């Protein structure tokens, strides 16, 4: 603490300029003239690698332009608990999707010149008592689910990893030898440095367990004490900690600094003050926004998921239109009226907490709709109250279209909003939303619902109402929220977003629930007894019908899949023949440095090729998804996502798509052999439009 950034490494005169560490995963926090990008969950909902990487690139450039060395993101915890407060910062409830989104984000950010920091490592899946809970996870589940996005981050060359507040199997994550030294540094071959979350360090011996950098440096904020500093020096002098380990800590930090060319004399100096943003002496008001609003708008549209459409969309110059709900307009207090966005009034474009940024402006849906109405000669009116429903029925009666905007918010646990201490109290939409929607639908036969939500919500109260003609799940899309949703509503952007999680019919359908404890002095035990079976994996294994399945999303056009085939990809490189043959024979990968990220394990091995035709009346984008199915003896969920891409097709156009699988993609973790192994038996695959909409099937040719 004490510098101009949320985290600071002091300079060494004439040798090292120091480091600035700054939030957040969606933009530069605590400063002005920056872009408020779409949230991680919105980026993941695009399933579009190009847009995801471009978002990362522009965030990286903005951080660098402000003089930041280390951007504290991306966040890639898995949303194990649907109510989890920070799920919107991450990339959904599927390790493969989260891993690919993290990979592309990091490549983009670091191409922009800033060090990326993968967080929160690991099992930080709820806000309640996050410093007083032990996530108790078996080894196979840890490897196949929660560690996977971090493994992909290492493969992307991530500079830093942030260890989390919680305990893992009764040992704090920032001094956990198994997760830090063995899995991350040995098995994944991570060459960067591990930093603590703020005050997540608990001892000097954490250095031996793999912690390289303590943040913000003092044991508690402003204490002037440190587990490192003189304590670390003393431990080296008395032989408790080897001096070579301290050399390793420093080398890792400097290696990342050099990797991003931050030793260049042209690298910008810090030009803002995170703690005193109004101090003119330390805030230079450098504008780093460029034209990044354009990609914000596109991602907001591409990440919107069309869940229901009875022919109501796209809108075609409606004669009259009423816009309903508090979420449709601006907040009474302005876009930054709540500290760290810790309030819910007006359009919801990001959650709350340290994972936020200042809005330079915020386009609300009502304003954007009225701009479109001028062009279409549509008569527009509105009803902003969610609670005063007495006159609403008559207000919507004669309207051609009634669009109801609702939301659900969450954030970090240091802020409580409407009784929600970070995590959501329940999975209902906020602000009397169910009654609001039902009142409108009972009185208007063309009711369209738009939900800006941080995660899943239960929609059973109205989803089957015959007058609810469409539902768009618009996520939390950043500063261009209004323009993004208007692009989708009017068909300027044909929706191609897909759900990054499952929307259930009941909260009890999910395999895991928020665990609370009235005694803050007791460490909560959170057993991950569901193992591999989270989200759609659990629903599939237990034959539970979701309301909307993982990977689901509609379009304004239709697509036909055909002509699938699978083949082994010829491999001219013979360097790894013995390892590949051993894997094919069912032997586990050897225990070695970098064993999980070995090239031979991850290079393309099988290609799955198929055709997609746009059979509808307009151009549009499709997200073909590849799932594999292991034999029952493997103990895996019925279906596992292992590939996806995005494809744009004109009316009537056909394209051939190829998705590849690596040996890693086809493997499971062997807890005895401590390696990746091909399960015995036949592995099959399906290609389709969601986790429950398979169009083509085949067998992996092994």
- Average predicted local confidence, pLDDT: 97
The backbone outline, from C-alpha atoms, is: globular
CATH architecture of the largest domain: 3-Layer(aba) Sandwich
Gyration radius over CA: 25 Å
Please report which band the strand proportion falls in: under 5%, 5-15%, 15-25%, 25-35%, 35-45% or over 45%.
Answer: 15-25%
CATH homologous superfamily placement of the largest domain: Glycoside hydrolase family 3 C-terminal domain
Supply the helix-strand structural class.
Answer: alpha/beta
Top CATH class of the largest domain: Alpha Beta
Helix fraction by DSSP (H/I, runs of at least 4): 10-25%
> What about the largest sheet?
6 strands, mixed
* Tally of distinct domains: 3
Q: Count up the helices.
A: 17
Describe this structure in words.
The protein has 3 domains: 7-192, Glycoside hydrolase, family 3, N-terminal domain (TIM Barrel, Alpha-Beta Barrel), CATH 3.20.20; 293-501, Glycoside hydrolase family 3 C-terminal domain (Rossmann fold); 557-699, Immunoglobulins (Immunoglobulin-like, Sandwich). Helix 11 (365-376) links the parallel strand 11 and strand 12. By secondary structure, it is an alpha/beta fold. The protein contains 17 helices and 27 strands.
